[in-house]
Amino acid sequence: MSRATLAVGYDELAALKLLALDGARRGEVKVSCGDLAGRLDASTQTASRRLQALEEAGYVERDVVSDGQWVTLTDAGERVLQREYEDYRRVFETTADLELRGSVTAGMGEGRHYISLPGYKRQFEERLGYEPFPGTLNVELAERSRRERSAMESFDGVDIDEWEDDERTYGSATCYPAVLEADGDAYDPVHVIVPDRTHHDETKVELIAADKLRDELDLSDGDEVSVHVSQ
Questions:
Q1: d(Cα 188, Cα 205) in Å, to the nearest integer?
Q2: DSSP H helix total and E strand total for the chain
Q3: Burial 42-69 (b: 16+ CB within 10 A, else e)
Q4: Is residue 133 within 8 Å of residue 212, measured between CB atoms?
Q5: pLDDT per residue as tens digits for the range 6-17
Q6: Burial class of residue 88 (count of CB atoms within 10 Å of its CB; 0-12, 13-18, 19+)
Q7: For site-directed labelling of 147, which of 65, 67, 79, 190 has its Cα 20 to 30 A away?
Q8: Is the dihedral of CA 208, 131, 189, 163 positive or negative?
Q9: Per-residue buried b or exposed e for 188-203, using 16+ beta carbons within 10 Å of the residue's own CB
């Protein structure tokens, strides 16, 4: 990551938003540092530095003239604002479906053991309506889906209670109903299973289903998939 990119923070993004509102996303707009400073509640020098930081980061292009400067948003600048928009959309809009994208990856083999334990197996059959294949499909999430994954926690999941045998206590989990899509084919239902513990890997999701998903959708490590989690 470049030094210039590191210098772009919330203050610079506020300036970028104002430029876009003025029309810089559609083409060149005339900008006065004094006017921009007033709208940002900052000094003229600070406004100038923010424009410079945006230019160095590649978010805007500038042509400085005697009485101001002409500014245009670049594709990179538009993408930054689009990411901000997606974050606010998740805050203010209720969605009935969450799409998580990623690629199939090998697991540690623990899923096969835990899915087959009687205390879990009984609850899966009663609450999910099927006996899961003994194993999970692991999906490494794309960067954007890693950020969006937390929205799943606001959905209504299926509770799997903790239980114990003579040796130990096994933790609870939540299963979220979903549809798995790969290369134009789909499998329904699957469930995203999330152990109810404090720390879990936000970069991956684990899926369970009645059948071996690798065989049903002809999946190999590295294949891209979409997981559609519904309310």
A1: 16
A2: 9, 12
A3: beeebbbbbbebbbebbbbeeeeeeebb
A4: yes
A5: 468 899 999 999
A6: exposed
A7: 190
A8: negative
A9: ebbbbbbeeeeeeeee
pTM of the model: 0.59
**Six token digits for residue 26:** 């559609």
Structure tokens at 224: 């891209």
- Amino acid occupying residue 231: Q
Going from the C-alpha of 65 to that of each of 20, 37, 50, 70, the distances in angstroms are: 20, 18, 18, 8
Place of tokens 């400085």: 64
**Is the per-residue pLDDT at 149 higher than 90?**
no
